Amino acid sequence: MIESKKWTNELLDRMRTQGDPAADIAARSLFEAVKGSTEAEVGAFISSFVSRDFSKAWSTSLIKDPPELVAYFENFDDFKFSAKEIKYLEDGSDLYDLHGPWITFCLGVRSLLKQYAHTKAIEVLRLTTLLVAHVNRRILETMQFVIDVMTEGWYIKSGDGSVKLNLQHPGLQSIKKLRLLHSMIRYRIKNKMYDTSLGIYDEAALGLPINQEDMVFAIHTFSLEIIEGLREMRIEISDDDAENYFQCWKLFGRGLGVSRELEPENYADAIELQNIIYQRHFTMPNSVGPTLSKALTAWFVETVPLLDHQTLITFIRDFNGPENFSILSNNLGIDIGNPVANLGEHLKNDMAFEEKSDRPSMVAAKPGQMSMDNFFLHFLRTLLTTERGGKNSAFRIGDGFMASWNLNSIEENPLGKGTVMWLAIKLIFGKIIYKLTHLFSPGAKNS
């Protein structure tokens, strides 16, 4: 049992009753502004402000812009960073530039899974059908968000040495829009603007939808869980790099509305808070977690060419490590009992991801890491050609990352058609064998 004098149950219980006042005002004004409008007008209005460049003056639309909404988008007080904090943003971007292909994959096989293991927070996902009904879009939007915020250039340096916030930075706009989306979801749930046949949200038992404790927990899945996941994969991350990456994401959390009262001082402090949250909310029964994890694993296998279920399960096992095996099994219903024996060798020999790469920034000191790196580049290439759905269908990777990860030329040397066909045949037979093995294994009837 973890106990903390700082992160007490009393504090965290209180945080479960608090939302995000600044964004909640903007969200409420938006819903009030569209009252009486047709569905088409509402859709056009929402599409217009989602696609707007709010660093410029806004034009009049079919529905008058609510002053509170305009004020929200024009307020950048949460992005007034010190020189030290700007350095955290730069250092975080550098680490992502180095390990971004691994981090992007880790988001799916560790970060999101940890979110699904939170028994109370996932009720929001269930009632708003944010994953199962729109699995492709939601996973890609999560990965897109991380790429946006990790892009360099948050601040523009002038010739006199002064710096100013880059109002056209993709991460700034992504944070503003995601924060408002969270408040819109909070408003919809509180006002029963969802399919109530799925059940009524019990605020007394679950806390306010997307409350402060759940917000800081989610931010940590994008920072702490990523660093720990890379370390499980034998990527050497120094304590200084881990600290810088955490501090970078703490600033993003501030921009997303996380209370200063819930900002840990450092990486170790954040780990302590996150472990207490796990202890508080990774509880049983968890009927939603397995449903969400099943949708996520199905998306990976169906979307990524050459990736079969057994290989994906091995990635999940290896990125999470033994300390999370019980969570994968008990909270998420993921069976990791039949992994590939040696993932690096499997990617190299069975899937033809050779241990060679033209990516100059890849640091691979362990056997098999080059093959994995090439697989993650293959994964990113898949994202670039996968339609997200919804209003923003194109997945974007900034020019800097495209060049650093050598994705501009990756199409020039694709796997030959014969190789792809042969590997596909091997994978199909592998899936059949896996299903038969699982069907006739002990306890299969109860699975």
Describe this structure in words.
The protein is mainly α and 447 residues long. It has 20 helices and two strands. The protein has helices spanning 9-15, 21-33, 39-50, 67-74, 83-116, 122-128, 135-150, 170-190, 203-206, 212-221, 224-232, 239-255, 267-281, 289-303, 309-320, 325-331, 343-350, 369-384, 399-404, 417-439; strands at 155-157, 163-165. The protein has a two-stranded antiparallel sheet. β1 and β2 form a beta hairpin.
List the helices and strands and how they pair.
Blueprint: H1 9-15, H2 21-33, H3 39-50, H4 67-74, H5 83-116, H6 122-128, H7 135-150, E1 155-157, E2 163-165, H8 170-190, H9 203-206, H10 212-221, H11 224-232, H12 239-255, H13 267-281, H14 289-303, H15 309-320, H16 325-331, H17 343-350, H18 369-384, H19 399-404, H20 417-439
Antiparallel strand pairs: 1-2
Task: Give a brief outline of the structure.
The chain is an all-alpha fold.
List keywords for this structure.
single chain, mainly alpha, two-stranded antiparallel sheet, 58% helix, disordered C terminus
SS elements, strand count: 2
Instruction: List the total number of helices.
Output: 20
* Outline type: globular
- The chain-level structural class is mainly alpha
Widest β-sheet, arrangement of strands = 1-2
**N/C terminus separation:** 31 Å
Largest sheet, strands/sense/barrel? 2 strands, antiparallel
Radius of gyration: 22 Å
Strand content: under 5%
- The unreliable regions are 410-418, 441-447
Q: Write down the secondary-structure element order.
A: HHHHHHHEEHHHHHHHHHHHHH
Report mean pLDDT, rounded to a whole number. Answer: 87
**Helix proportion range:** 55-70%
